[in-house]
Predict the structure.
Amino acid sequence: MTIRIGLVGTGSIAKRNYIPCLADQQDVSLGYFNRTQSKAEAVAEEFGGEVFDSLEALIDWSPDSVFVLTRETERLAISQDLLSLNPRRLFFEKPLVAAAGQENVSEDDFVAARALLHRAAAQQCETAMIFNYRFFDQPIKAKELIAQREFGRVVNITGLVHYACWSHAIDLLHYFADPIVELSALQSSTVRGQRMAAHDVTAAFRTGQDATGTLIGTSMLDWTFPLLELTFNFEKGRIHIRDLDGDMEILDGHSGRHETYAISRDRSRWDQYDASFGKSILAYLDSLRHGLPPPVPGIAGLQELQVEAAIRRSIALKRPVDLAAELPLEL
C-alpha cells in the first residue's frame, strides 16, 4: 500500500520539519503545490515527488491526506479552497486559523475555524492537527508516570509561556487535564516584545473537572531561557514541564520523592523540537496505515482557538466567559 500525501505550502517549516520525515518513508509518495511553483520544484528536486500547478491537479492525484503548511495568516483561505475540491483528509499546522498571526488570535479566527471544521465534517473530510509538543520526550514520559503512579486527577495548573509556544501550551493543558470551561482574563496596557510583539495576557480558568489555574502569555521571555513552563498539580503528585524537553520535575505524593528527568546533554532543545515533528508525523502516518482516527484530531485545534477567543472576549467585556454557552464548539 502506498500512502499519497499532498503538501500545500513548501516554505521553511515544511522543508525543515515535514518533508524530510515524509520523504524517508518507503510507502509514502509526495505531491506538492506552492503558489510560487519554483519553490515546490526545488523541494521535489531535493526530496523527490511530483509538483502540481493547481490545487485541482493536486486533488485529482487522489492524495490520502493533504498537509496544509502555509503561513497561519493564509491557512483559512487555502483550506476553504481545498474543501471545495472534496479532499479525503486535511492535516493542519498550528494554529488552525490566525489571520493576524499566532500572537494575535481573535474571536473571528475561532468563528472561521469552527465553520471550516463544520464544513469538513459535513463533507466527511477527516481533519487532524500537528501539535507536536505532545510528542516531545518529556510529555510522553509524563503521561507514562501519571498512569503508572496513580497521581489522580489534576487540581491546579500554572503556566508561563512565550507566544511562540502559546497554542501548544493550551493544547498541553487540555491533553494533561481537560478542556477549560470558564475563564477571566486581563492584558497589559502596552504592547511588549520585539519578536512577536503583543500585549501580555493573564487568564484565570476552571476546567470541566474543576481544576483551577492561571496561564500567562508574553513575548518577554528571553529565547536563551525556557520559553514554556507548565506545572500540573495532581491529587497525589506534581509535574513541572519546562521548555522544549528541558528538565522535568516530578513530586510523587505516594513515595515522597522529588525526581528530575533530563534528556542527554548532547542534544539541544532544537534537536528535540525537530524530532518532535517526526514523531507526530509518524504517529499520523500509522493511523492512516491502520485505518485509525488521527492521534491529534482537528477538534483539538478548535478547542485551542476557543480558549484564545474566550480570552479576547473576557478582556474586551471585562468579565468571566462561559466557553460552552458563549463560544460553543457545535461539533
